[in-house]
Amino acid sequence: MIDLSCHLLEGVEGGPESFQGSLEMCRRAVGDGVRTVVATPRWAAQAAAPPLSFAECEGQLSRLRREMGGALGLKLGFALQFGAHLPGLIEKYGARLTLGGAGTHVLVALPALEVPEGAEEVWAAIARLGLTPVVGRPECSSGLRHAPERLDAWVEAGAVVQLDAASVGGTYGREAQRFAWRCIERYAAASAVVIASNAREAGAQRPTLKSAAEEAARKLGTRRALALVEKTPAQIIGEANRAAHSSSRSPRVNLTRALAAALRSLLAPKTLPEES
């Protein structure tokens, strides 16, 4: 699987307190069947610079790659807090703000309560720059839950929706869960919805990408579940060819009888490198 949003880096909001905490998160991800993680530190609204310098972010990721010994792909992205300044910020920094550095999609975090004014204009401006907005955790926005037609229009105009695995599992309540499944049912056919872990420090207990994928497989079947956690995320970060190869591998272990072989292969635990 590919996890498009994870608070993996230390020294930023929601991240672990130490490098060891980041490393433990990586090991847990591999154990859950994740092959690539995009670290997405939150870029505060109106901030002119990232929460950590690009060099610091890449330095942490390089160290984690060495420790993981190739067991986990690690990429950088940002969760950009919504604001009218976003098009200008993207013009300034370019592909460095995109998910996985692929130069195609930017993850945008919305306010929790209200649908921001001028959202459509911001999405259009981002599109004119040649990028696709990924609307992060819309199911957690009470404003969008009460005005779902706004989100429908955004997706119709080209936006992609990123759901939180915890919402899919019901951690944030029934309203958020129902809205998450509404998004899956409406947008999956257009490859316009994905699920990410939004994982935080390793000690936090919350549903994983694996559990969300299993639930999706039970409700939707293997092919549609794979699109949410593997195929569409791979397209977003430019790994579509690798995803096709991954989904064709033979299964290594049984996860549940309800899951078909292809999903079982993706979610199978992998061998972790020994601690140094």
Structure keywords:
13% strand; six-stranded parallel β-sheet; three-stranded parallel β-sheet; alpha/beta; 12 helices; 276 residues; 43% helix; TIM Barrel; globular
Could you tell me the number of beta strands?
9
| CATH architecture identity | Alpha-Beta Barrel
Order of helix and strand elements from N to C terminus: EHEEHEEHEHEHHEHHEHHHH
| Total helical elements | 12
CATH fold group: TIM Barrel
Shape: globular
Strand order of the largest sheet: 3-5-6-7-8-9
Number of domains: 1
Q: Please write the CATH class name.
A: Alpha Beta
The biggest beta sheet reads: 6 strands, parallel
Strand content: 5-15%
Uncertain ranges:
247-260
The radius of gyration is 18 Å
The CATH fourth-level homologous superfamily: Metal-dependent hydrolases
- Give the termini distance in whole angstroms: 26 Å
Summed over residues and divided by their number, the pLDDT gives a mean of 89
What level of helicity do the residues show? 40-55%
Structural class label: alpha/beta
What is the gist of this entry?
This protein is α/β, with parallel strands linked by helices and 276 residues long.
Description:
With 276 residues, this protein is α/β, with parallel strands linked by helices. The chain has one domain: Metal-dependent hydrolases (TIM Barrel, Alpha-Beta Barrel). 43% of the residues lie in helices and 13% in strands. It has a six-stranded parallel β-sheet with strand order 3-5-6-7-8-9. A three-stranded parallel β-sheet has the order 1-2-4. Helix 1 (19-31) packs across helix 2. The longest helix has 15 residues, at 54-68. The radius of gyration is 18 Å and the shape is globular. The protein starts with a strand and ends in a 9-residue tail after the last helix.
